[in-house]
Amino acid sequence: MTRLWIVRAGANGERELAAIEDSRLYPGFLEARDLAKRGDRDSILEHLKEVMPDASAGRLKNFAAQLNQFANRISVGDLVVMPRKLTDGVAIGIVKGDYTFDAESSFKHARDVEWKSESIARDVFKQDLRHSFGAFMTICEIKRNSALERVQAVLETGRDPGSLLGAQGTVPANGGEDDADADDFATDIEDIAGQQIISLIKSEFAGHALADLIAEILEVEGYTTKVSPPGPDGGVDILAAGGTLGLGEDRICVQVKSGDGTANHDVVLRLIGSVSNSQAQTGLLVSIGGVNAVAQKELDNNFFKLRLWQMPDVLRALYRTYGQLSDETRSKLPLKQIWAPVSGSDL
Fold first, then answer.
1. pTM of the model
2. Which of 10, 181, 194, 208 can bridge 15 by disulfide, Cβ–Cβ 3.0-4.6 Å?
3. Are 299 and 324 in the same domain?
């Protein structure tokens, strides 16, 4: 029987691009060694007690349950969702290989996967599934609300049909942690709120209007800006400069990508050319849909010339400046700050 799993690639998305590029699942848990011969949760728990002697009992139990799912319970042919942190999307794939361990790898624990979609916007899914994708757990199963059938439908049709009569996943009444559903665990409220804000930004500042929002944020942070008119921009959406009258040495050429798709290598190369042509000091690429691995390598190679704002960076900039944005902008993005307790590592 096919099952549906969540496998994350880092609390901050640090393994996302490698997972996509390598067609693999990289859940982390780097403290653990090879689990290939540890066939159940109890065996994995004993191993974790050895390699993590200072960890709490709850943390060890939690990690053992998740690693047992990854090494022993996920099957070839199962469907997997990787909620992405650097974009507002999720990657969806089919598991193609058994658990492997490579001590020389930066990621150590892995499974092969065939990605059917590298990034589907979360707002394609109805709210209950988006809530499941926000579970704090790195590895967990999604059973309820016809989740498997609905994710398959999104892959085939691009539409979430909602809960399907007669296909309601259930959780065994006496099941252990390995049998729990994603909705049984704490939810990453900050991540869900961020996804909702990004959806609002995409709605209220669609297309070229996102450049106006980014320019306003830069102005609050002390820059004088010039926004290119809608239409072909030659790789320049915003010119920004610091200093009196915007004549300082801190000059930025900004390219804004507002669509769901990832920015590719050509986008980065055009930005490099625009930085040179405009006599800017720095290039800033703003991409809600993130960048692909080749584009990221080009950005890394131009560390002293280029910077990237992906979804988390846009949100941080928005939060920093929100109180000083115009009334018109804040009416389109009505936000309020709330305080919430930090979820412990044992959740």
1. 0.83
2. 10
3. yes
Residue that is last in its domain, among 187, 217, 232? 187
Q: Are 239 and 254 in contact (CB under 8 A)?
A: yes
Residue 90's DSSP bridge partners are: 83, 120
If one counts every other C-beta atom within 10 angstroms of the C-beta of residue 336, the result is 5
CA distance 255 to 252: 10
The rounded percent of the chain whose pLDDT value lies above 70 is 90
Render 247-269 in DSSP notation, one character per residue: -SS-EEEEEEE-SSSPB-HHHHH
Helices (H) and strands (E) in the chain, counts: 11, 12
Q: Is residue 205 part of a domain?
A: yes
> Looking at the structure, do residues 287 and 313 belong to the same domain, yes or no?
yes
Q: Are residues 317 and 219 in the same domain?
A: yes
Q: Can you tell me whether residue 306 is helix, strand or coil? A: strand
Could you tell me which residues come within 8 angstroms of residue 315 by beta carbon, excluding any fewer than 6 positions away? 194, 197, 198
Instruction: Report how far apart, in Å, the C-alpha atoms of 284 and of each of 202, 219, 289, 297 are.
Output: 19, 15, 15, 15
Report DSSP state, residue 110. E
Domain limits at 21?
Answer: 4-187
Q: Is 225 in the same domain as 178?
A: no
pLDDT in tens, 136-164: 889 999 988 899 999 999 999 999 998 76
**148: three-class secondary structure by DSSP:** helix
Question: Nearest-CA neighbor of 70 among 17, 145, 148, 7?
Answer: 7
Structural domain includes residue 70 = yes
What is the average per-residue pLDDT within 93-101? 96
Quote the CA–CA distance of 235 and 270 in Å, as a whole number: 6
